[in-house]
Amino acid sequence: MRFSIVVPFLLCTTILFGQYRFEGQVATAYKNQKVYLSLVENYRKNSRVYLDQIIQKTIADSTGHFSFSGGQLSPLNQIYRIHVDGCEDQSFHNNHFLRACPQTESLLFIASNTDTLSLPLNNDHQAFCDIHSTNPASTLLLEVAALKEEMIFDFKDHDSELSRSINFKKWFARFQEFGSGTNEPLAELYIYDFLSDRTNETYATYLEELSSNSYYEELLARLQQKYPQSKMTTQYNKELQSDLALITAENDTSSYFNSSYLIFPVLVLVLAAVGYYFQNKRKSGGENTALDTLTSQERKIMDAILDGKSNKEIAAHFYISVSTVKSHINSIYKKLGLSSRTEIRTVYKGNS
To answer: Is the full-model pTM beyond 0.70?
Structure first.
């Protein structure tokens, strides 16, 4: 009876105070080496080890076994890394954390401070390939990594630009469907980091669908609901708003220049046509206004002048005196602003 009471009490105490235990085996080459536990608080810094991420270290024993335990972790899920490093004893010592170290083996996983997690060697005696955990989310990052490998393999059969574009969209949909189905936004951030990485071929597709796909806003809502105080939630929100603003600015600029390509040539043609119209109108309009001031008799005499007739011929044709003809011609000169027959013929020849 005493045993049955103590065991539940101990289990409740462990959960109450958040006692975690992460243990496992390292490969033979890393026996008696240091093993590190790191907290990843920036999803853009998950590809390698950073000194400021390390929160605990231990040493694998002669059999390769190691263990981390305690109660100082968050009660909420977070992304952790366990890694062992064979570069540590080289001449540059801890500086290798800022470089690529080929002797490093590591594993990313999701856990909280109440989880028990085991990392056994696989059948080939390789470390960090399998996870046994009380937390169902612990294996999700391994599953995402497997999807990445599958995607890379799939792209070997897509050579054309169109084929690759279609395939990218297919894989975006597949990753997003997997992520939203995990009920774990941290796993979705791990996917988002991959798809939106500016150095990846996926970046163009990410920008293309960002303004039309509601997935990214929905992910933000899930993060704010489950991890409202998380640094990653704040980081994602800032990045998302920045990228949306970038897309909006590029679309506005593109629309402006695309419209300009059509508007500017049309505007030039319109201005040229208007200028030509007013130039001709000013010339012809000025002439017609002056001609309209002539009386019918003066217009007839002007037509006779344009026909090359002399004053006597005009007088005989209209049965008027030569002096009357001269009087009409002087009136014509004044009204038209001219001073000779030659000017009349030069300006009005063909308009009679």
So the answer is: no
